[in-house]
């Protein structure tokens, strides 16, 4: 996984978690749903990158 993608996905996950928490604290259901969606999407992207990494190797000639 490229470091840029990894950092962006982690940032998006944290942002989603924060938005979800803020939504819970304020009773804003829309923010809760958006935060949960952002968090889940980020985790899926991270999993996809890990699968892609498992099938590629830095040792292969390009």
UniProtKB/TrEMBL annotation:
Top-level taxon of the source organism: Bacteria
Transmembrane segments annotated in the record for this chain: none
Gene3D superfamilies membership: YjbJ
Location of the region described as Disordered in the Swiss-Prot/TrEMBL record: 1-62
Annotated Pfam families: CsbD
Biased composition (Basic and acidic residues): 1-22, 35-62
Ranges of residues in domain CsbD-like: 5-55
Family indicated by similarity: Belongs to the UPF0337 (CsbD) family.
Protein name: CsbD family protein
Source organism: Nocardiopsis lambiniae
Organism phylogeny: Bacteria, Bacillati, Actinomycetota, Actinomycetes, Streptosporangiales
């Amino acid at each position: 996984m490229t470091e840029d993608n990894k950092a962006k996905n982690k940032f998006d996950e944290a942002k989603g978690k924060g938005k979800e928490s803020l939504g819970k604290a304020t009773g804003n259901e829309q923010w809760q749903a958006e935060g949960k969606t952002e968090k889940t999407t980020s985790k899926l992207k991270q999993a996809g990158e890990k699968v892609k990494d498992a099938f590629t190797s830095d040792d292969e000639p390009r």
